[in-house]
């Protein structure tokens, strides 16, 4: 009897499943920190380059992707120009590494176009993380410690972070991911009709309470803005959202009625916003010829609010601190209005404005559009806005051709991007790891959107 040779079976790697797994892990990676996010992005880009190597750099026929590439290229070139002028503060490597988010956008776009993107598991991951964090914040508010025994600052502040400990971004995290859970979870994954009515109301109340008790006021404002957009665009859950709004108003009124500190804290949000508008109008383009003449005689540590040198100049009411940051950002932008100064340049360029009153240095301008103006100038912000208009236009024109479920997904993506890029919001740095990963991931899903696999 002839012996058969033993042959090892060929092992094939299913890269689509790996990408789906990485996307499921993405919401969790934000809890862990920047290192985990960078690892997820690196793996997605690396696997995408392997899977779509023949297509990924052939985007000249895709107008939308080409324009986004111009934005990244401009950011890189302006950083090089600034690096040549100021070699001791060179950010060229940061600008080069930032191209990973362009690759992330392309990889996710091709992945979604392949119809292998499993929205169901991505949605479940987002929902579990967002709901759990919201409940943890609510529990911490009423009990002084969260599920794991972590305690907030106590009576001295109103910021709570739950299991995120000292990272006070809980409200922002909930606000960024809640639309997926609020709209898609009941509409796509829940078949019971009675649950489809009750779940959105419950989720809306939980998310609102989580953001409210976290003390993050701007995410609460963006939450309200997002809900208004949902009520206008998504008729499938319009009634549930209106009922949920009644619950949220009741929670807000009861909280402010029983918590005096909360009442003062959230009332000050209105006055701070008003102060920003008034101070920008009064001081943004005000000239100080005497101070400009002697600016080289000042050093950074000498300039501070209330300095005797400024006794003859009117000082703005600081409030939240945003007015003076915005004034400084406008001043820095005016030095190079067309091209900007390159990636993450504000933290250094702001030092050149400290001889003026009402100016301060921070790591970034705390507003996406002011940061764009500082880093890539008017040209950069125009290119990015053209990209957004094109990507929205291409999807909106196809609304009549797609099914109801797919339309819900598209509406969610558009609402998320519009809310995130709301011009008047204060924000973290657009070019930070967490925010760039989130934005270009969502834009990638939108860019590749045709149909998505629900199960």
Write the layout of secondary structure elements.
Elements (H helix, E strand, L loop, with lengths): L14 H18 L1 H18 L11 H23 L6 H6 L2 H14 L5 H25 L26 H20 L3 H22 L2 H17 L4 H21 L1 H24 L5 H5 L28 H14 L10 H4 L18 H29 L7 H17 L12 H15 L8
Brief overview, please?
The protein is an all-alpha fold and 455 residues long. It is 64% helix and 0% strand.
Structural account:
With 455 residues, the protein is mainly α. Helix content is 64%, strand content 0%. It contains 17 helices and no strands. About 4% of the residues have low confidence.
How many helices in DSSP terms?
17
Helix content class: 55-70%
State the low-pLDDT regions, or none: 6-11, 299-308
The end-to-end distance, rounded to whole angstroms, is 49 Å
Order of helices and strands: HHHHHHHHHHHHHHHHH
Instruction: Estimate the global geometry from the Cα principal axes.
Output: globular
Beta strands, count: 0
The percentage of residues in β strands lies in under 5%
The biggest sheet, with number of strands, parallel, antiparallel or mixed sense and barrel status, is:
none
């Amino acid at each position: 009897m002839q012996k058969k040779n033993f042959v090892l079976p060929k092992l094939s790697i299913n890269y689509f499943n790996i990408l789906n797994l990485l996307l499921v892990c993405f919401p969790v990676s934000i809890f862990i920190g920047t290192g985990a996010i960078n690892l997820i992005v690196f793996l997605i880009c690396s696997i995408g380059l392997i899977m779509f190597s023949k297509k990924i750099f052939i985007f000249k026929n895709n107008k939308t992707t080409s324009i986004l590439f111009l934005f990244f290229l401009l950011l890189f070139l302006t950083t090089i120009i600034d690096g040549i002028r100021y070699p001791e503060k060179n950010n060229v490597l940061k600008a080069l590494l930032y191209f990973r988010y362009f690759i992330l956008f392309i990889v996710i776009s091709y992945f979604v176009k392949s119809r292998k993107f499993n929205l169901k598991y991505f949605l479940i991951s987002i929902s579990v993380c967002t709901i759990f964090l919201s409940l943890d914040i609510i529990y911490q508010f009423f009990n002084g410690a969260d599920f794991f025994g972590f305690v907030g600052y106590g009576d001295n502040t109103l910021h709570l972070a739950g299991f995120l400990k000292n990272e006070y971004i809980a409200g922002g995290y909930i606000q960024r991911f809640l639309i997926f859970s609020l709209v898609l979870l009941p509409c796509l994954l829940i078949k019971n009709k009675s649950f489809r009515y009750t779940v959105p109301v419950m989720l809306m109340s939980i998310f609102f309470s989580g953001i409210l008790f976290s003390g993050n006021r701007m995410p609460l404002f963006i939450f309200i803005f997002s809900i208004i957009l949902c009520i206008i665009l998504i008729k499938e859950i319009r009634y549930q959202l209106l009922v949920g709004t009644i619950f949220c108003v009741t929670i807000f009124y009861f909280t402010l009625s029983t918590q005096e500190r909360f009442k003062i804290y959230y009332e000050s949000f209105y006055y701070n916003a008003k102060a920003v508008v008034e101070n920008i109008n009064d001081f943004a383009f005000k000239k100080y010829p005497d101070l400009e003449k002697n600016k080289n005689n000042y050093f950074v540590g000498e300039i501070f609010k209330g300095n005797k040198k400024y006794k003859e100049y009117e000082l703005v009411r600081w409030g939240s601190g945003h007015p003076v940051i915005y004034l400084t950002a406008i001043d820095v932008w005016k030095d190079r209005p067309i091209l900007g100064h390159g990636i993450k340049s504000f933290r250094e360029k702001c030092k050149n404005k400290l001889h003026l009153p009402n100016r301060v240095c921070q790591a970034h301008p705390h507003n996406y559009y002011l940061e764009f103006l500082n880093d890539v100038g008017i040209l950069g912000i125009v290119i990015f806005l053209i990209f957004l208009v094109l990507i929205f236009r291409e999807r909106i024109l196809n609304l009549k051709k797609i099914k109801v479920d797919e339309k819900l997904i598209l509406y969610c993506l558009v609402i998320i991007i519009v809310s995130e890029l709301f011009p008047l919001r204060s924000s973290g740095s657009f070019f930070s790891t967490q925010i760039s990963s989130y934005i270009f991931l969502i834009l990638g899903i939108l860019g590749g959107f045709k149909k998505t696999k629900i199960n």
